[in-house]
Amino acid sequence: MKKQRTTVFRCSACGHEEPKWLGRCPECGEWNTLTETAVSGLARMGGSAGLKGKAGLPQSLPLASVDPQEGSRISSGIQELDRVLGGGIMKRSAVLVGGEPGIGKSTLLLQAAAAVDTRGRVLYIAAEESAGQVRMRADRLGLFDGPGAGTAAPGGAASAIEICCSARLEDIQAVIEALKPVIIIVDSVQTLHTDEAGLVPGTVNQMKFCAWELISWVKDHDAALFLVAHVTKDGIISGPKTLEHMVDAVLYFEQNEGDSRFLRAAKNRFGSVDEIGIFTMGERGLAGVEDPGRLFLTHREGDLPPGVAIAAVLEGTRTLLVEIQALTVEAKGAVSRVFSDRIDNARVSRVAATLEKHLNLRLADHDLYVNVAGGVRIAEVGVELALAAAIYSARTGLSLPSGAVMAGELSLAGEVRPIRRLPGRIRAAGSLSFTHFVGPREEEPALGHAAGRAPGIPPGRGDPHDLPKLSTVGSIKEAVKVLFT
Ligand code: TYD
Ligand code: MG
Questions:
Q1: DSSP-based three-state secondary structure for 379
Q2: Number of the ligand 1 atom closest to the C-alpha atom of 103
Q3: Nearest to 89, CA basis, from 55, 120, 66, 59
Q4: pTM higher than 0.85, yes or no?
Q5: 103 alpha carbon to ligand 1 midpoint, in Å?
Q6: Burial group, residue 465, by CB count within 10 angstroms (0-12, 13-18, 19+)
Q7: 271 in ligand 1 pocket by Cβ < 6 Å?
């Protein structure tokens, strides 16, 4: 049964409705006035042949007769990608994958094309590369290694991939109709063009029109679509942004220092946007990092230098241990300034002001530099206690003990506030052999919360010797006392 449309494009100037997006309203001639809106219930039923009764009246259908497989998930075969998508690729969905050129979008999607858990066809539309270039990448990734490799009929995981080198919508549609793929990858959406949407190729209208045609196709055919989009460093390319409302999920690939990359969801109709995928780029493509615990820690022998503190922060369901670095130098100008590009400037200023007020730490005549080792961007509130400790350590020249990890939110009153999932953070620190955890006092002491015992960790679970000693503190003053004496 053909899936009914649940949205239409309505002209904001004259109210005219179109089933698909157009740059110009055919009714009133206005440009860029069509916006996607939900079809009203009656109109939707009236518009669907499948739901009309004999007299052409709208009809319902038994819920039991709806195919439960419609819109089910399939695994991409890449755990970190599945995680960000919310547990696999949703059929009848469209996913936009954005990122700077060279970050690994094509690599990720080619790896997924080879690994995806389906018996159906996977169509890779190379709209900006030649078939040979894609084949070379596949060989580098070892996608044809396997039974039959090197023969005229290559085996390996990639044998189900079909490639189409065209950016012309009409050609792509013909291929799709003939092949009926389950997964369609368009690399990239920015190069698509069609004769139907105006004369100038490469315009936003062209791209939106083509994207919408392909999205409609997968919605009607139990397939899934990935659209690759190049985004510049400042993220301002307007083109792909205009696609965000048309797709079900928007994933952005983001580069840390070194080889690691985060895949973040900016939008996900079928899952949370908290989870991130963590990858490292190697000689044979992207490898998922399931346990990122130590990924961003710098190996150090002996004491920590002043200004360095280890924080246990959350990224989705996982805990990352990251090294926060602070440096204070006498201000050259009349006003002190904050330089921090991995932790929000406003957060750093607020924590510094709190230290100044509640610990009499003189910072007003100092410039403050903050960094996170590995170049990871941290937006989680639990980082504040470690940030405060790093700034305190930098300004006083006193080092933190090397086995210490901390997590906690800092209030303006100088209190250390409770944070989400403290037990998980403590466990992560323990599993990486840290010996001391400083965190907030929980309002409701969790199970087994005795002195020195981590809360929420039932006795008998894991070796208690693996858990760090726990110090709970109510204020930044207390924390400094625990950490620096
Ligand atoms: P690519 O997937 O082409 O990036 P995008 O599609 O986002 O522009 O990959 C970009 C970089 O990754 C390129 O500089 C080469 C490098 N790379 C590796 O380091 N290892 C590999 O196995 C592959 C395939 C690429
Ligand atoms: Mg590419």
A1: coil
A2: 7
A3: 120
A4: no
A5: 6
A6: exposed
A7: no
Cα 102 to averaged position of ligand 1 atoms, centre (Å): 6
Kindly report, residue by residue over 256-277, the tens digit of the pLDDT: 887 889 999 989 999 888 888 9
**185 within ligand 1 shell (Cβ under 6 A):** no
| Closest residue CA from atom 24 of ligand 1 | 285
Distance CA(140)–CA(417), nearest Å, equals: 50
What is the rounded CA–CA span in Å between residue 229 and residue 416?
A: 42
CATH 3.30.230.10 residue ranges of the chain are 308-445+463-484
226 Cα–ligand 2 center, Å: 13
Two structure tokens written together for 98: 């954005």
Q: Are 253 and 263 in contact (CB under 8 A)?
A: yes
Q: Helix 476-484 and helix 345-359: axis angle, to 10°?
A: 80
Where along the chain do the CATH 3.40.50.300 domains lie? 72-288
Closest-approaching ligand to the CA atom of 136: 1
Token match 């207390």: residue? 478
What architecture does CATH give domain 308-445+463-484? 2-Layer Sandwich (3.30)
pLDDT in tens, 136-173: 999 999 998 865 444 444 456 778 899 999 999 999 99
Is the sign of the CA dihedral 163, 167, 173, 174 positive or negative? negative
User: In sequence order, what are the beta bridge partners of 101?
Assistant: none
Of 99-108, 225-234, 352-361, 431-440, the least confident = 225-234
Residue with tokens 């230290």: 355
Nearest CA to ligand 1 atom 11: 102
d(CA 169, CA 308): 54
**Side chain identity at residue 302, one-letter code:** G
Question: Which of the four CATH numbers 3.40.50.2300, 3.40.30.10, 3.40.50.300, 3.10.290.10 does domain 72-288 have?
Answer: 3.40.50.300
| Three-class SS of 133-163 | HHHHHHHHCCCCCCCCCCCCCCCCHHHHEEE
Ligand nearest to the CA of 284: 1
